[in-house]
Amino acid sequence: MNRPITAGVDGSPESAAAAAWAAREAVRRDLPLRLVHVGQLLPETLVLAADEAAQIQWAHDLLAETRRELAERHPGLAVTTDVLEDDGAGESLIAAAAGAELLALGSRGHGPLVGFLLGSVGQQVIAGAERPVVLVRSGDEAPGEAAGRDVVVGQEGDPQDSADALEFAFRTAAARGARVRAVRAWSLPPVFAYSPASLELLDESGGLEPYEKKALGDALAPLRERYPDVPVVEHTEIGSAGQVLLSVAADAQLLVVGRRARRTAVGARIGSVAHAVLHHAPCPVAVVPHRD
């Protein structure tokens, strides 16, 4: 059974943009669309002024209206709706993501040149979800996915470290007829980080920059083979990963980053690179988890 594209809906312009983005993606991938609402996302004025029955009815009406609007734009798109129980900690959305191809959420933007404001629920969902989560801002529209705009994806570490993010980027680009721009940022290691083994690898590669280019090429090789029709641009640059990705993604239609799906002593973490791009990217951002 195909996993649906799922979107969280709360009545805000941001969630409307996320639902519209999810509908377009569902059509491109020939997948059903699922719209969900959790009680925690009710407007504060409604929570204070209405009883539980009225709140539930408002949620059902919101989902029905969103479904109607999207069905008009995309005839033939299969759309289901669900009102989920309020758990107070994002767990309902994390559970919804578990059964989805991806989960799309809206996020408030700082402005036209700055990215996303993440509430506590959004942070918990991104950190805890085992499936990709896409953040979409109000104002994001279909023209932003026009041909000529790349799907930008960050690659780091060994090939397996970014395999899931690369797979997501290539699959998305294939569905959109877009180009993938794969980015690997690197920095000069401190002197004490050098070891005889690392120096030998660098010598074999001809230096740091050729080594980084080879590492990116090796990570991309299996994706190029699986998606031969997807054009690819390889980009290596010295600098912090977040800053390099943001500079490259200035005119992207989607930015894809990975996140290690593991829990630390202080709980699940988004990761520094994902955190940086989520707060400053001008386009939708997909955070793709992977396990060590």
Automatic annotation (TrEMBL):
Pfam families: Usp (PF00582). It comes from the Bacteria. InterPro entries: Rossmann-like_a/b/a_fold, Universal_stress_UspA, UspA. Residues 1-137, 150-289 form the UspA domain. Belongs to the universal stress protein A family. This is Universal stress protein. It comes from Streptomyces xanthii.
